[in-house]
Amino acid sequence: MRRSTILVFGILMGAAASFAVTQPWDMSGSANAAGNADTYRQLNLFGDVFERVKADYVEEPEDAELVESAINGMLAALDPHSSYMSPKNYRDMQVQTRGEFGGLGIEVTMEDGLVKVVTPIDDTPAARAGIQAGDLITHLDGEAVLGLTLAEAVEKMRGRVNTPIELTVRRGSAEEPLVITVVRDIIQIRAVRSNAEDDVGYIRITQFNEQTFENLKTAIEDLEDDIPAEELKGFVIDLRNNPGGLLDQAIAVSDSFLDRGEIVSTRGRTAEESQRYNARSGDLIKGKPVIVLINGGSASASEIVAGALQDHRRATVLGTRSFGKGSVQTIIPLGSNGALRLTTARYFTPSGRSIQATGIDPDIIVEQDVPEELKGATTSKGEASLRGHLESEAGEEQGGSSAYVPPEKEDDKQLIYALELMRGVKVNSLFPPDPEASVPN
Predict the structure, then answer these.
(1) Last residue of a domain, which of 188, 211, 231?
(2) Stronger pLDDT, 401 or 302, i.e. the higher one
(3) How far from 366 is each of 96, 335, 392, CA to CA, in Å?
(4) Alpha carbon of 359 to those of 95, 158, 350, 395: distances in Å?
(5) CATH number at residue 166
(6) CA distances (Å), 242 to each of 110, 167, 406, in order?
(7) DSSP letter (8 states) at residue 237
(8) Both 231 and 244 in a single domain?
(9) Which candidate in 298, 300, 302, 380 is catalytic?
């Protein structure tokens, strides 16, 4: 049985790394017998309720739905991140984690019951077919979108590679709709984006899927080609609003900037469920300075990276307090019945900090200027606000912070601060009363 470890808040991103095998409790003699007897009594109670519902409920229920709901109820009582995945949900999770799937290549949302194209992704079937940002998709293969949920519409647009789908599109003020045929292809999710900000390399990591580390290596190589070595001041790693993902990818990304020492440790109920992960020799950027950006939307795997680089004084962490998800989920396949997503451990930064329900406090706090109409709507309440969350082992729990990132770079106060700090500008004069800080060498 292949088990996988993920660290993610919200939508499940997937599974890849092998992880711990759950061990049975060590019970013996009369304690074992008493425990088994009590368990059997509880299971008999469940069976009695199940049979009574089947026999007497006002409408005949589906057995499979009753059992799945009972399982979900049991897991929901543990913590917010443990859950059961049906076979379909498990397959979807694996697709998202691989970072590629058969589809069209568009980012979409819902508007007035129709699918609205936020943007076509560069060099994908949708972009090549002429789909444009702002297009409203009204029909999929002649079937009206109105009445479908966004998830249902997305499911219809995905499919086998090299199969066509006909989109009916309403564009701008045009009176007649457009009918555009798009042939599905492999769509690769870009977990890493980068660009040269004059003499600073900017790298944005949006999630930790199976492609993240390789994408990061490519981004570093490209930036080192674009910026002459004698001019390159350092790198800004943007983890804002990154919800997490795969544990092994968080470790690999951290290792990219470390030459030695512990990256993260995980501690479960038994010794077999506890692990320690260390950096290997070799720093991909050869000691260049690093600034890491975080905010209230930076969770889980993002917090592992920020915490490791902060504890080793390898990076200056800048922004606002992170989300505070310090638990590890293991994906346990259940054969043809889907999979179990179970919280099996807490993780700890190299200095022994648990950030569960507390988050990571940046070295330099820089708040964004949030538009009046968005104030309050962009604040993440953090792990501590989730009902049934694992309690903090580090003292007082704290809520999240602002998760707002301006759409225009020139309005992005956190990024501007990081770039100027990297260049050695007296940034406290730009944004008083923020404290002076130095970039580690």
Answers:
(1) 188
(2) 302
(3) 32, 48, 25
(4) 29, 36, 15, 12
(5) 2.30.42.10
(6) 22, 31, 15
(7) E
(8) yes
(9) 300
Active-site entry in 79, 311, 412, 434: 311
- Rounded to an integer, what distance in angstroms lies between the CA atom of residue 62 and that of residue 349? 46
Distance CA 13, CA 400 (A): 21
What pLDDT sits at residue 4? 61
Mean of pLDDT values over 81-107: 81
Domain holding 231, by residue range, is 192-430
CATH of the domain at 415: 3.90.226.10
Taking only the tens place, the pLDDT of each residue in 16-67 is 222 222 333 343 455 466 668 888 888 999 999 999 999 999 999 999 889 9
Q: Rounded mean pLDDT of 320-327?
A: 94
Q: Are residues 331 and 303 in the same domain?
A: yes
| Contact yes or no for 255/304 (Cβ under 8 A) | no
- 226 within domain boundaries: yes
In sequence order, what are the residues at sequence separation of 6 or more whose Cβ sits closer than 8 angstroms to the Cβ of residue 357? 324, 326, 382, 383, 384, 389, 390, 391, 392, 397, 398
Q: Against a cut of 0.85, is the pTM above it?
A: no
Name the catalytic one among 325, 392, 401, 434.
Answer: 325
What is the predicted pLDDT for the residue at 111?
78
**Residue 64: both structure tokens together:** 């499979």
User: Is 311 one of the annotated active-site residues of the chain?
Assistant: yes
Which residues are paired to 318 by β-bridges?
293, 364
Indicate whether 214 and 112 sit together in one domain.
Answer: no
Statement to judge: residues 301 and 364 lie in one domain? yes
Alpha-carbon torsion (339, 343, 348, 352), positive or negative: negative
